[in-house]
Amino acid sequence: MIQYYSSRDSSRYLVSFEDALLKGLAPDGGLYLPDSIPKIDPQSWKTSHSLADLGKKVLHAWLKDEIPQAALNSIVEDALNFPCPLVKLSDDLWVLELFHGPTLSFKDFGARTMARLMQYFLKKRQEQRIILVATSGDTGSAVADGFAGQDNIEVVLLYPKGKVSKVQERQLIVSRPGVRSFAVEGNFDDCQRMVKEAFLDPDLSHLPLSSANSINIGRLLPQSLYYLWAITQLMPQAPAPVRGVTQDDYPVNICVPSGNLGNLTGGILAALSGQKVNRFIAAHNANHFFPDYLQAEVQAFDFHKTIATVSNAMDVGSPSNFERLYHLLADDVLKSWIWGTSIDDQSTFKRIKKSYEAFGYVACPHTAVGLEGVVRYRQATGDTSPVISLACAHPAKFPEAITHALNIETPKEEALELLWQKDTNVISLEPELESLKRQL
Ligand SMILES: *Cc1c(COP(=O)(O)O)cnc(C)c1O
Asked: What interhelical angle do 217-237 and 51-63 show, nearest 10?
């Protein structure tokens, strides 16, 4: 049975997946790590005909001792019910589009799967949870949407009023069963502080409060699936000379636009469970802690303040999943396997333009950071191996940035257009714990 231990516990006290999922953060403040990683036979996942099909096989290898296959199958089918296409830009560059879920970012994979896994265990235990989230971007809407309508679970969402984009706000406040949204008259830090205080407040200790942030292991496992799915789709599309050869002869690099490093950690888990990856490229925006660490000769943990950028879902000064990556792989392995770079807003806008000119492809700012990272990696290393770059959000979520870069109207996206016709439900809150307490 695969069990989980805290990154801060040298004695390696082990808990089940169920406990790690429902706790989120370990009691000592550490992040849960698996004590072993299942080796998944490539023949089994490479013959999958859909992401959900692949997900059932791979998650079964992780969870077979805690969730029967039939129950897991319905969780996965229900969660991963949207496409995840690999789109060819040129003979050596592909993008894996992770934005076809309901809230149009890759956060849907983790949030939807995690919500259904939690519901499964809570029903079994006959317990309830109230998920409290502070959000400034894609996580909140993915969590609200992923958890909406799940039995035994309610969601309370806090976001800073007027500090998120119009599209993002709309995604946060549309009415959803079991979800309450609060617009806090303050900034993101106020929202986070209120959530933290609520968890510690004795008056609220009778409530089954829980969190759903990106450090939960229940979000990372599903984020490993699309890496395997990318390779499954790549081989039939590979250029003629390599088509038909095994992947062993066709080393692939994968570029991950990164912020809190949860997406990249999913990729590392996929690779450790059996997918060949030549190199990972970690493309960060101006928040450059991780690229700095990768380039440093010695261990350096020089965390930074968060800098605001146009790729705002990656604005993380001190990525919390770094602690997990650092325990998963030795320092020298991390530094040789992952190549990192930091890309400023000006280069991001330029890359949106160049990708549009070269391939007719409209990339969101996060995706563009990745595509610029690919170019820099090739220049710096001379490695011309094929690259799959992850496309993390739909460009229609960032109309201002696209218009700024391309001088065109962003292509419309039906799911976003529909948002404007739906009912909304939001309550304004003073940035004080007392006002949140009254609501809870
Ligand atoms: C969350 C997010 C990222 C960053 O992913 P991490 O797992 O935090 O590294 C990148 N792009 C988009 C669109 C996101 O929503």
From this structure: 130
